[in-house]
Structures are given as structure tokens and as C-alpha cells.
Amino acid sequence: MYLCAIAVDPRNHSCFAVAGGDEYVRLYDARKIEMERSKFGLPVEQFCPQHLVPEKGDVITGLAYSQTGELLASYRNDSIYLFEREHGLYFNDFDEFHSEKLPVPRSFKGHLNMQVLKGVSFLGPNCEYVSSGSDCGHVFIWRKKDGELIRMLKGDTQSVNCVEQHPHEIVIASCGTNTDIKIWAPGDSENPSTAPLDEVCSLFYSHTACFTWIVIFFGDTACHIESNVPGMLASQYYT
Fold first, then answer.
1. Which of 204, 211, 210 is nearest to 233 (CA)?
2. Where are the WD repeats (predicted)?
3. Which residues pair with 95 in a beta bridge?
4. Contact, 168 vs 187, CB < 8 A?
5. Which of 42, 116, 41 is nearest to 74 (CA)?
């Protein structure tokens, strides 16, 4: 099995989730990892939508934690699901012969996640929204509380793969197979600011006291776009 996504719980940095080549999100607590061979690598919890149990050959391409510990998982040939503690397989004393007892997690649908790996993210100051790219070239934004699709933004001529929110401003960045990163702010329709780059495979925001960077990875190279004006791109650095 291969690994596609890792997410750290913002409430407790000892806890993290991993996912990849099957349908299960696995949660680990670094303080409880057993070194004994028979117990090594056992998770403290697992999540999976009930209709994908037992394994159906799907893949999880993205994970994201909210500020309150909710966990998003994006499935390649399915939907995005929002897992909370009560959806856990161990929490529900789960076995595959009684999967109907699992509570159904909220889902977010409409996008296409079948080609390049797609990330997933929370948006809003209190993680009120969910966002993902799509193989149709759009940024999808759903309302978290009911899963309703509320906005689609044209972000790429082919596929949008990554969407990330600014750590302090109401600004998001998106990227995909085109050679630029698009910066979106409230009031933008289809005319975001752009920053030219080679093809991008992932990005995230990083913040210090004076500057905010967007860190982008493509191939074996990292690019840092530095900004000291909220939401605006000031200069580019390549390493």
C-alpha cells in the first residue's frame, strides 16, 4: 500500500492521520506507538464510509483537519467525507459483517477526482466551508454544515489539484496543470491574480511574524512566493 496524504491534528501535534492506497483513514498517536513487533504500526482509530467496507479498491488522495478535529478525506472515485469521533470503526466496535451500524458521515459531491491526486481543505475563519479542486478545471466550495455546493471557480484549463487558504486573510490559492498559481479574494469572479510557475503538484501557506509564503512543490524543486501584503504576491524565490 502506498501513502498519499498525512494530516496533523492542530489540537494535538502528537496525533496524525494517514491515508493512501485503500479506503481507510488511519489515526496514530505518536505517544502510543508500540515498538513491539506484533503491535508495531497499529492505529488508535480508523475511518471508512460504510458502503466502502469491505475494501472496494478505492484510494484516498487528500486529508485535512479542522480546528476542532474534524477530518476530511477525499476519495478518488467517490466523494469527500467528513469524519468525526463518532464515525470511528473502533469507537463503534465495528466488524465488516455489521457495517450498517456505522453512522453515515457527511459527504461533499459534484467534483471529479479521477486523474491527478486531489487535495482537500477547510475554508473560512472557523472552517465553515470545504474546498477541493476537480478534473473539470474548477475550484469547488461547499458549505460544511449541510454539504451544499455554493461556488465553482474556473481555476485551470484542465485540472485543479490544490486549494489552500491564507492563514490570516480571506484569500485562497489554487493550482493545477496550468503554469500558474491563482490567488482568490472576496469579490473575485473569474479574474484572480496569477503567479507563473512550472507545473505545480502541491502547495501550502507558511507564516512567520513578518511574512507569509506560499510554498509550492513540483518535481524535486520547491518554490517560495513571498508576500508582506496580505493576499498579495510580492516576489518569487526558487531553491
1. 211
2. 153-184
3. none
4. no
5. 116
CA distance 95 to 48: 12
Omega of the bond leading into 54 within 30 degrees of 0 (cis): yes
Where does the chain have alpha helices with state H? none
Map out the domains of the chain as residue ranges. 3-205
User: According to CATH, what is the number of the domain 3-205?
Assistant: 2.130.10.10
Place of cell 479498491: 57
Residue 172 · residue 151 · CB < 8 Å: no
Taking only the tens place, the pLDDT of each residue in 63-117 is: 999 999 999 999 998 999 999 999 999 998 887 666 567 899 999 999 999 887 8
Interval 198-229: pLDDT, tens = 444 445 444 444 333 444 444 444 344 444 43
Q: What is the spatial distance between Cα 45 and Cα 69, in angstroms, rounded to a whole number?
A: 13
φ, ψ of residue 66 to 5 degrees: the values are -90, 175
User: Burial letters for 191-230: b for 16+ Cβ neighbours within 10 Å, e otherwise?
Assistant: ebbebebeebbebbbeeeeeebbbebebeeeebebebeee
Distance of CA 11 to the CA centre of its chain: 17
